[in-house]
Specification:
Layout: H1 3-6, E1 14-18, H2 23-34, E2 38-43, H3 46-56, E3 60-64, H4 73-84, E4 89-92, H5 107-135, E5 138-143, H6 156-176, E6 181-188, H7 194-200, H8 204-212, H9 222-233, E7 244-247, H10 251-254
Parallel strand pairs: 1-2, 1-4, 2-3, 4-5, 5-6, 6-7
Helix pairs in contact: 2-9, 5-6
Length: 255
């Protein structure tokens, strides 16, 4: 292995990925495994997790769990470490989407989105972060969004949640940095996934508008996010923390 390759090598690392069975989480898992890491995929749908692990191979482990069940998070983390060893990478990727006008969004709907994205990710980060501090190393990653960076209609709850991630990343980077723990985020553009399909469903004008404002004139692929995640969690980014990295085909610059 040459020096350039070794900078991106994750051999000996264990990544816990929420929402890891499909979409962006699976893209991250695939790229982490290709880079030598073990991955623990956490999600509510055991069947999807098992299917993903079968495709990923012997270094992938399925762990059914719900990050919104906050009291169960310490046990979930302990179980993950029992399965695959100490967690050195945490990818907060689980989420739900709500497409609805702001004035029609109920308190319960708003709370559900915030609970999944913000409360769940924070509880997991707190538990894993304690362990990383003890070990004096680790990388924590949040899946932010273009909605963290610009105004997008009909997604007020999702935007609030993803914008909260940006603030969390900045504060956590400052708090955990002295302990050797780095905290960053990726802000995906429009990436081919089930969530994107739902967002664009029945709205051809919006799809055309998004592609028209994406300089690369296409949707991204889950592995585009995966390789960015590998970089941010690898030795190549050992002095990078507190960053929100857009992976969006240039969309953030074109709006």
């Amino acid at each position: 292995m040459n020096k350039t390759t070794s900078a991106f090598d994750l051999t000996g690392q264990t990544a816990l990925i929420t929402g890891g069975g499909t979409g962006l989480g699976l893209g991250m898992a695939r790229c982490f495994v290709k880079s030598g890491a073990k991955v623990v995929l956490v999600g509510r749908r055991k069947e999807e997790l098992d299917k993903a692990c079968a495709a990923l191979g012997k270094n992938a482990f399925a762990l059914a769990g719900d990050v919104t069940q906050l009291a169960s998070v310490p046990a979930l983390v302990a179980q993950a470490e029992k399965l695959a060893g100490p967690i050195s990478i945490l990818a907060n990727n689980a989420g739900v989407h709500l497409k609805k006008p702001a004035v029609e969004t109920s308190d319960a709907e708003f709370a559900k989105v915030i609970e999944t994205h913000v409360f769940g990710a924070f509880a997991l980060t707190r538990e894993v972060g304690k362990r990383m501090i003890e070990r004096k190393s680790g990388a924590i990653l949040f899946t932010a969004s273009m909605a963290s960076l610009m105004g997008i209609p009909l997604v007020v709850a999702y935007t609030a949640a993803k914008s909260a991630y940006v603030g969390m990343v900045r504060t956590l980077a400052v708090e955990l940095g002295p302990h050797g723990v780095r905290v960053n985020a990726i802000a995906p553009g429009w990436i081919a996934s089930d969530m994107l399909d739902k967002a664009m469903n029945g709205d051809p004008q919006r799809k055309a508008k998004v592609l028209g404002r994406t300089p690369m004139n296409r949707f991204g692929e889950p592995d585009d996010i995966g390789w960015a995640a590998v970089y941010l969690c690898s030795p190549a980014a050992q002095f990078v923390t507190g960053v929100v990295l857009p992976v969006d085909g240039g969309a953030a610059e074109a709006f």
